[in-house]
Amino acid sequence: MLYQGDAIRMAREADNVVVLTLDLKAESINKLSSQVIGELQEAVTALERESDVAGLVIASAKDVFVVGADITEFHAMFAKDEAFLVDMNMQIHALFNRIEDLGFPTVTAINGLALGGGCELCLTTDFRVMAEGAQIGLPETKLGILPGWGGCVRLPRLIGADNAVEWIAGGSQNDAGSAFKVAAVDAVVPGDQLLDAARDVLAKARAGDLDYQARRAEKKAPLKLNAVEQMMAFETAKGYVAGKAGPHYPAPVEAIRVIQKGAGEERERAQQIEANAFAKLAKTDVCYNLVGLFLNDQLVKKRAKQYERDARTVDQTAVLGAGIMGGGIAYQSAYKGTPILMKDIKSEALELGLKEARKLLTKQLERGKLSQTRLAEVLSNIRPTLSYGDFGEVDLVVEAVVENPKIKGAVLKEVEAAVGEETILASNTSTISIDRLAANLSRPQNFCGMHFFNPVHRMPLVEVIRGEHTSDAAVAATVAYARKMGKTPIVVNDCPGFLVNRVLFPYFGGFSRLVELGIDFERTDKIMERFGWPMGPAYLLDVVGIDTAVHASEVMAEGFPERMGQDGKSAIQVMLDNQRLGQKNGQGFYRYEEDKKGKPKKLHDDEAHRLVAEVKRETRELDDDEIIARMMVPLCLETVRCLEEGIVGSPAEADMALIYGIGFPPFRGGALRYIDAMGCAEFVALAERLAAELGALYAPTERLREMASRGERFYAEAGDDA
What are the residues whose beta carbons fall under 8 Å from the beta carbon of 255, sequence distance 6 or more? Predict the structure, then answer.
């Protein structure tokens, strides 16, 4: 054994080929933490001392190759100054350059995921051999940074500027076929043949059949592009990527600039350009929040897996109600492999549900995402029925009938009599209390909420709502089913609106008060969209459905009258009174027409403005920052209340629910990170100023005031994101 550490071992084989194996102890994956980088330096030093080495294979003993750097270290690391970050990256560049400059041919055997720093490590070797099921990529721009360990330098020289820009700016994971097509890897083989293939590549290099020195020279030299080719490769790409990424995500465009600046330089100078740009991006709020979002997502998934460990198997499910929502749930379940019964009381409704599933499958077929055979297989997993005849074999039932407590209560009582003693009942209610719905059930311990967001196939979040009597087994089974459907479940406790809608409706409350002050709702929409929301509040209400919003606001007002009670008629109610339901019937705050793709196109409507003028109480001039404050403060305060009341278990889960459920701007990190970024004391001062005029909806909690006085945060300074 030439080297043995906690993450790396290195041994010489009979043919003088050295195999460096990555195998991080006590972890299921390999990642390039500070500790592992330290061991890699020691291993390379040991290797440089060896004589008569015929070649090097870098391989992994895990199911993955290397998933990247250790992101849990990022917040603490990026808190240091730019000079430290530049020096840190240049040290890693020096280490990777030593691997690239070894006096013998080198090859990486990529057996699984090779992402970020793992991909960059692969790029240091002369050749790369990839298993058929492996994936490779540089996703750093999704964290608000750019590849900082040579990705912006080596990849363009290896696969060409155009392909490198696409990989790096898009942050994509690329399968073996795609990687081979652009020459990112030299061979693709079955996984069990990977190491033999790597050794074969080294043998060919030693025999002179493969010129490894020429490979190195190409990676170390300037890009072979003249001025016109550079302009075509980079300027066009910057415009396209800037339009796609938007103004709040600078990393993709900056990555292109770095590739462009380094294109005419030798290796070390290009690496310096990369390191400088990396350090600048690492210090931005966008990077801080996107790294936090990644860590929060990992925590949410970890907690879901903990529930899943104790969950009973869900092999057969059913959905009650075959409308658009029921059809979407049936499609998602069937597509992910769990057969589902779809029950309704009308044949026409069943056909509507099947039509929804067929429409979604046909889109997948047209995009080449599935075959005709697979389409038929998924459809066969959906069985429409008008009776409860086969419900005795169902493990879990999702109730998705109309959002009316009496109807839901009756349907749930009816289905409970038709299913087995252990069958879980889950209501896809968006606002109605789970305890209220459980009141007439004989087995309330088997009942919980399972709130999907529309459209089901796109929205990643599922709220799993625990009622007073809900058992751990019911929650665990529902979480497991949500994960099996490809969703991110977050467990919350029962209250009107649960977490996401309870937090959303104070935001709509802020909007209604702005309208009463004579603020143009289209202006508010534009301001909030510039702030980072995918759509402004008026547009969002049209998408949600004005009737749905009014119903939900009534539930909220009943549950939280002091904050969410409505004094007089709101603009939303005026829309409903005039049968303007939003996109459902083509008119709400906006008018809608179908575009060429059949999607509703938003248009200005004078009539909507005339109607909204009815609720104006005064005319006030407010600047953009004041409008943002009046929209965001109530949303953030309600998130704080949900955390304090134990409706949600942690800041991470609260923030991820808002990002996944209602499109809270990801680069801002969530409502609680937004408060942290502003500073708790400054946020409380802003809230108190607004509360003096606007009342309880804007009043900070006593606990939040205490946090402000003590200088506390929801998230610790150095990367503690629980």
Answer: 140, 141, 146, 147, 152, 165, 168, 169, 277
Residue with tokens 């549950």: 559
Assign residue 542 a region: left if phi > 0, alpha if psi is -120 to 50, beta otherwise? alpha
Where do the DSSP E strands lie in 116-245?
A: 127-131, 135-137, 173-175, 187-189
For 10, the enclosing helix (H) or strand (E) is strand 8-12
Give the pLDDT mean for 654-659. Answer: 97
Q: Right CATH number for 3-283 from 3.30.930.20, 3.40.190.10, 3.40.50.880, 3.90.226.10?
A: 3.90.226.10
Residues 66, 111: Cα–Cα separation, whole Å: 9
The one-letter amino acid code at 94 reads A
The phi, psi pair for 448, rounded to 5°, reads -155, 175
The three-point CA angle 150-119-142 to 5° equals 85
pTM for the whole thing?
0.92
| pLDDT one-digit tens code per residue, 286-309 | 999 999 999 999 999 999 999 988
CATH of domain 313-495: 3.40.50.720
Q: Is the peptide bond before 455 cis (omega within 30 degrees of 0)?
A: yes
Helices assigned H by DSSP within 20-116: 34-48, 74-78, 82-100
Question: Do 340 and 318 form a contact (C-beta atoms < 8 A)?
Answer: yes
What is the spatial order of strands in the sheet that 113-115 belongs to? 113-115, 135-137, 173-175
- What whole-number distance in Å separates Cα of residue 433 and Cα of residue 467? 8
Three-state helix/strand/coil letters over 546-580: HHHHHHHHHHHHHHCHHHHCCCCCCHHHHHHHCCC
Tell me, yes or no, if the two domains 3-283 and 501-646+679-710 fold the same way. no
| Selection from 671, 674, 669, 683 nearest residue 711 by Cα | 683
What is the sign, positive or negative, of the torsion defined by CA atoms of 562, 568, 570, 575?
Answer: positive
CA distance 714 to 1: 48
Please state, as a whole number, how many other Cβ atoms lie within 10 Å of the Cβ of residue 426: 31
Alpha helices (H) in 578-614, listed in sequence order: 606-612
Backbone angles phi, psi at 564, to 5 degrees: -115, 5
CB atoms within 10 A of CB 103: 7
**Residues annotated as part of the active site:** 451
Q: What is the DSSP string of 446-509?
A: GEEEEEE-SSTTT--EEEEEE-SS--HHHHHHHHHHHHHTT-EEEEEE-STTTTHHHHHHHHHH
Per-residue model confidence as pLDDT tens digits over 488-528: 999 999 999 999 999 999 999 999 999 999 999 999 999 99
CATH of domain 501-646+679-710: 1.10.1040.50
Q: What angle do CA 343, 344, 349 make, to 5 degrees?
A: 120
More confident residue, 107 or 224: 107
Largest Cα separation within the chain, whole Å, is 88
Beta strand segments in 313-390, E:
317-320, 340-343, 382-385
The residues, ordered by sequence, that sit 6+ positions from 601 with a Cβ below 8 Å of its Cβ are 592, 593, 594, 595
Amino acid (1-letter code) at residue 235:
E
What's residue 555's pLDDT?
92
Whole-angstrom distance, CA of residue 228 vs CA of residue 243 = 23
| Band of residue 230 on the pLDDT scale cut at 50, 70, 90 | confident
